[in-house]
Amino acid sequence: MTITIETALTQLLDLDVPIVQAPIGGLSNPRLAAAVANAGGLGMIASTWAAPDAMRRTIRQARALTDRTFGINLILEWEQADRVEIALEEGVRLISFFWGDPSPHLERIHRAGALAALTVGSAEEGRRGADAGVDVIVAQGWEAGGHVWGEVATLPLVPAVVNAMPERPVVAAGGIGDGRGIAAVLALGAAGAWLGTRFVMSEESTALPLYQERVAVARETDTFHSSLFDGGWEDAPHRTLRNSTVQAWLDAGRPQPGSRPGEGEAVAHWSDDGEQILRYESSSPRQGVEGDIEALPMWAGQSAGLVRDVLPAGEIVARLAEETAAALTATMRGIRTQQAI
Predict the structure, then answer these.
(1) What is the Cα–Cα distance from 298 to 284, expressed in whole angstroms?
(2) pLDDT, tens digit, 9 for 90 and up, residues 203-221
(3) What CA–CA distance (Å, rounded) separates 127 from 41?
(4) Fewest C-beta atoms under 10 Å: which of 39, 131, 157, 287?
(5) 149 and 137, same domain (yes or no)
(6) With 60 as the cut, is the pLDDT of residue 341 above it?
(7) What is the CATH number of the domain that holds 117?
C-alpha cells in the first residue's frame, strides 16, 4: 500500500510524503538521494567540498536514477557561488544552505526557477531567512546529529519557528527517528521532517559497517555534543557517538586543542591515495577509509536510540510513512475532546 501525506512541503516540491533525507556529509551519494526520491521523499546530496567536475557528475548520476525532486546542500562557512551555479546549470530544484547567510545567492536561484532552503537554530534566524526570500526553513533542534547550529531543542524550536513564519513551509530536524517523531513535528506545525541518523542506517549510505553497528546498539544517551572533531572545521559544534577519542579526551580533563590526547596522530587513511586522517579530524568513517575506524567521528543524533536496522532507503521511506500515518490515526483515536456549551 502506497501512503500519501500531503503538506505544504510536498505540494511545493511534488513529493508523496514529507520525509527528507538529511544531507549526511560524505555518507550521502546519488544512489541514496535517488532511492529516497523514488520512494516519494526528498533526497539530498552534500556538495560543500565537491570539485566542479565531481559535483556535475554526482548530480547527473542522481538524475539518471530518478526523475523526481532531489536537492543539494551547501555549507556557507566556505564560498559556494561556483557550486550554486553548477547546481542551477544542472537543473537542481532545491539548494539547501547551512551555517551562514544565503542572501547573496537567492536572486540567482529564484531567477533560475529553483528554490532555496536554510537550516536555522532560532525563530529570529528563520524570520530573517524568510524575509530575505528563503523558500523553506529547516528548524534544527539541539538533538540533531552531525554539525548542530543552535542550542534549542526540537520540541520548543519548531512551533516557535512556525509561529514566526506561517507563510513558509518549516521542516523539523533533530531527534526524529521514526514515524512517531514525524507525526509529532507535523502536530507542531511543521510541513516535513528531516532525518539524518535513520538514513545513515540505509543500505545506500556509504557508512562503514562498524559505524552502522555502533548506531544499531546505541542508546539515546550514547551521543556527545562538543566541538571536539574540529580538524578541517574549527569552532563548529556537533553531535557524535561516544568513542575512544571522546573518552580519552574526557579522561584527560577536556584539554584545549594543542594538548589533547593523541593530537596529530594518524588513526586512519584513504585507501586510494594513502592520505592520512588524523585524530580529531571531521572525516566520516565511510567507504574508502581504512584504519582505526572506531576512533573517527561517528555522527549521530539522539534518535540513534530508535534506529536498530539497516534497510534499503526506499523501504525506510515507506516504513516511516506507514508509521507516521498510524501514529496520526492512533493519536486522534486515543484523545477524547469535549467542548462545553
Answers:
(1) 7
(2) 999 999 999 999 999 999 9
(3) 26
(4) 131
(5) yes
(6) no
(7) 3.20.20.70
Record the pTM. 0.96
Q: Is 274 exposed, middle or buried (0-12, 13-18, 19+ CB in 10 A)?
A: exposed
The secondary structure of 128-151 as a DSSP string is HHHHHT-SEEEEE-TT-SEE---S
Domain with 156, as residue range(s), is: 8-205+306-326
282 and 175: one domain?
Answer: no
Q: Report the residue count for the chain.
A: 341
Q: Is the residue at 331 inside a domain?
A: no
- In this structure, the answer to whether residues 137 and 97 fall within a common structural domain is yes
Which run of H or of E encompasses 198? helix 197-200
Residue 176 neighbours by CB under 8 Å, 6+ apart: 154, 182, 184, 185, 193, 194, 195, 198, 303
What is the rounded CA–CA span in Å between residue 189 and residue 12?
16
Strand arrangement of the beta sheet that strand 276-278 belongs to: 276-278, 266-270, 289-291
CB 16, CB 10: distance < 8 Å: yes
> Can you point out the beta strands (E) in 62-196?
70-75, 94-98, 115-120, 136-140, 146-147, 170-173, 192-195
Residue 90 covered by a domain: yes
Of 273, 243, 276, 274, residue with least CA distance to 261: 243
- Model pLDDT for residues 7-42, shown as the tens digit of each residue: 999 999 999 999 999 999 999 999 999 999 999 999
Same domain, 53 and 172: yes
Q: Element (H or E) spanning 46, and its range?
A: strand 43-46
